[in-house]
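Sample pair:
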Amino acid sequence: MDRNYPAVIETMEYTPEDEILISGQFEKLLDSCNKVATTEDDWDIIRRAFFLAKEAHKGVRRRSGEPYITHPLAVARIVVDEIGLGVKSVVASLLHDVVEDTSYTVEEIEAMFGPKIASMVDGLTKMAGVFTADTSEQAENFRKMLLTLSDDVRVILIKIADRLHNMRTLGSMPPAKQIKITSETIFLFAPLAYRLGLYTIKTELEDLSLKYRFPEQYKEIKQKLQHTEVSRSKFIDTFNEPIRQRLKESGIDFDISGRVKSIYSIWSKMQRKQIPFEEVYDLFAIRIIFRPSPLIPEKSQCWHIYSLITDIYKPKPDRIRDWVNIPKANGYEALHATVMGPQGMWVEVQIRSERMEDVAEKGFAAHWKYKQDSISKDEDEFDKWLKKVREALNSPTENAVDFLDNFRTTLYTTEIVVFTPKGESRKMPMGATALDFAYDIHTNVGNKAIGAKINHKIESIFTPIMSGDQIEIITSDNSHPKPEWIEHVATAKARQSIKNYLKKDRQNNIERGKEILEEKMKEYGVPISARVFRKVLPAYESRTKDEFYSKLGAGLIDLDGIGKVLRENAASKTLKFWTIQLANPLKIFGGGDKKKTQRNIPTVSADEPEFTIAPCCSPIPGDTVIGYKDPESGKIDVHKTSCDELTRLASQHGDRITSVKWSSHKAMSYLSVLEIRGIDRVGILLEITQVITGELNINIREMHIQSHDGIFEGEISVYVMNIDDLNMVIDKVAKVKGVEYARRRKR
């Protein structure tokens, strides 16, 4: 069973109520299987799998109290109804936890159900055993799951269905566990669903992650969507009516509807642009799905419908997205256009055929079905992506965490199309540089790159490339990758190639760094100790001692300012008098009576770990926070729950996440940074500083303000006691005449 969802073992048979519940859910699964089971053998194997799973999970209940067998039944229904897989996938879904949680073996599954289903169940069974100190068990589990891409993509699809059902039933889990699970989901599972074309499932995973991560914000957006539903529906009807008339006159068989954007996408835009809900204008998109004529190619019909629509509404030229001629790597095809609708509102219109809609909703399963039915068996974009993934999976990496980071970069990408000097087209992710392109050509080309000709003009290898660019890479045998190259690439292949090259010199750099630090510490007469590293590592943006030594040995950092770092008073970064609630106290502190420790929530005492404010998000009293135990120092870093770095850590090291909360704390100040923007006028900065220091008696550490074309913008660093102080500063500054906004900087 998924360890994220521990079950309660009970020595009891199924109750009559359980039998009714299980029987009802099994009947629903059989109804769903009508579309895929075509022979008596199909029905027989589904029934045998169900009865085996039911017997194997007898006496086990989910945290919600339901019999555990209801979970594999639900996963099997998602697999057939929402993803569109067949009988073998239904059987593997029913059996997906049997080998992990019971005495049954893969060999026994093979004897009963055949080698293919046994292989799928084995792929779905989590890795167990001993892991090295620098390897995350979660990342290893993900790695094994992803390795099945080299054999059978259906295993990944079933795992996504498993995660979807677990997310739908996440409400019974404690908050710290919800943070861990939602972090995994948003970090890997939602991007993976997107890349496999499962847009509907990807959207639900994102929405559910938001619901449990930020319940108040989720609820607020949902309520506002409900309140604006009537006016939005009226606008959609008004917008659609002339299009509906024109398409009917042209003899096109179609459906047209308005789809509201997901709560998560709305929230993301609000966060990204720092705007309220009322300023998010593209809350919906119009979707036109047509039934193609056998005499006219689908592509031609898409563009014909586009021309009919733009006869009515004027298009925005830079907002046409042609995924008909150049499909996305996950098989997605559609023509997107943005047009000016009534009341001066821009509206996105999506045009696609029924086949395109099926692929968009069911992803890989539908894509594969249509590929099998087509005459051409040529390698398409999805096959090319899958080939690249398989190559990455089979290449060596330093550890599972690096592997997971590299793999994830291949998931959420907006693609561009560029050309080689001979006119060969290549797809690259948005944000890629000429160096990414060099590595895409060949690893040796990337390693020896010194420059690029972009559209026949010589540019740096770090230059971002744009769709339509023609690129030629200039190489030299004397060139080789440098550590800073990693900061200038966007693709997993480029990043891993650079890391592989640098790995050869890493140990030498570490040894060289140790020597440099030892010499410098002798100058100051300071012995190297854990206390020194607690100050040095964050100052030089290093997570571990080895990373610090490696940067130092490679010349990426110098120690000219280390004297100031050593003299800094770290007290303002250290929290005292905390109350801690631990998800697993034994893993944090070790030892003790297991039952007693799990039943009693400990409070912090003098001998417990040190707690430090995470510099990546700088929480202050009043922020909702969560703890992460650093494996190097043993201290617990305190992050805001909205911190992106926390999401990454929780997705890979969930066992180190622990609940923390603000309790009594010393009367100390915490540094926070405000972003401000407004209309420049004489005296406005004086007014702002008077409000902060004079009226509110808040100390300003520093200000960085720039003015251009009558607009000023910049940052103000202030010392505050808690979140209430900070909100008061923001509120007062925002009311100064000419200030467009004042907000807390999001790191």
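The first helix runs from residue 16 to 33.
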